[in-house]
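User: Design a sequence. Structure:
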């Protein structure tokens, strides 16, 4: 029998090119600028994706979907500091696209769709931490993109 699960959503729109936003997700040096204290990324389908941050602690995943400039889906390993997940797997799906804005130049958009958080009361705090943590992380990313720090990193 499948247990009830919950999810979360975070989004970001900015004037940065989608390629820069993509690099912010897959380059360890870029991740360290806005999100992670330490990061290891094997940028390919089936590769490992791990980071340690003040917001989330240590998180390790494997890359389930890898479509450069478009999509990165991570399947997370069980986290020993969180409640037991049973047969649930926490999934974070990063989707990138370009949003038309009328007279202005198109904006890059990054959406994070998180799913697989068990519905049990032991997971309430974890869900709140993921929701609030990604809101903070995306605000850091927005600031780095606005200040063109990631652009300098790529050059």
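Assistant: Done.
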């Amino acid at each position: 029998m499948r247990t009830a699960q919950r999810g979360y959503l975070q989004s970001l729109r900015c004037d940065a090119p989608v390629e820069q936003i993509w690099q912010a997700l897959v380059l360890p040096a870029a991740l360290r600028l806005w999100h992670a204290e330490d990061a290891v990324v094997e940028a390919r389908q089936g590769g490992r994706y791990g980071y340690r941050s003040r917001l989330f602690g240590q998180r390790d995943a494997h890359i389930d979907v890898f479509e450069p400039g478009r999509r990165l889906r991570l399947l997370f390993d069980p986290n020993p500091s969180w409640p037991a997940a049973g047969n649930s797997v926490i999934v974070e799906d990063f989707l990138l696209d370009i949003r038309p804005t009328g007279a202005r130049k198109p904006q890059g958009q990054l959406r994070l769709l998180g799913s697989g958080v068990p519905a049990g009361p032991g997971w309430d705090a974890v869900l709140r931490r993921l929701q609030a943590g990604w809101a903070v992380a995306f605000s850091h990313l927005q600031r780095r993109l606005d200040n063109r720090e990631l652009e300098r990193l790529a050059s």
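The mean pLDDT is 91. The longest helix spans residues 124-146.
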